[in-house]
Amino acid sequence: MSAIEGAFCxxxxxxxxxxxxxxxxxxxxxELRGDVLEIGGGSGAMAxxxxxxxxxxxxxxxxxxxxxxxxxxxxxxDRSNVKVEQADVTSLxxxxxxxxxxxxxxxxxxxxxxxxxxHEAARVLRPxxxxxxxxxxxxxxxxxxxxxxxxxxxxxxxxELAEGLAEAGFSDIDVVLSARRHxxxxxxxxxxx
Length: 193
What we know:
By secondary structure, this protein is α/β, with parallel strands linked by helices. It has seven helices and seven strands, in the order H-H-E-H-E-H-E-E-H-E-H-H-E-E. A seven-stranded mixed sheet has the order 3-2-1-4-5-7-6, with helices on both faces. Helix 5 (114-124) links the parallel strand 4 and strand 5. The N and C termini lie far apart (35 Å).
């Protein structure tokens, strides 16, 4: 993630937007329950919204970036149902079948090996568990922006994400383009194992 993106992700305007509009849109009516893992949680803006909206969930928020883990830890320190931990989404430190729901918000394109992240999400989900989130799609604007800011990325096409989810062992896959095809919201369920 570039310095500009990092600063925006830690900002109060983003926290407000994330909680008020982005989270409800991303969840698309899904009521979070049980044990929830947010992968690539950044500064904790979405997690703050989840903790407020769903106080009964047990939420673990992860990120690989030290600065984001520190920011999320500070932001979420008063949330008794939230833990913040450093973790690589391509090699999660959790046992198989640990979570009911895994969320990911606008971060998969920052993981060059994003298919590994999908496999890890499937692994840590219980049978019938749900992966839900949103990300940028592979558009000229997204590619140009990330090239200019120098952040590591691998843009993902709509069809490519759907195929990656199926390959990772998900079913009931729903990937919907939004915002003039610049964003995609997705939801998938782990097959019973």
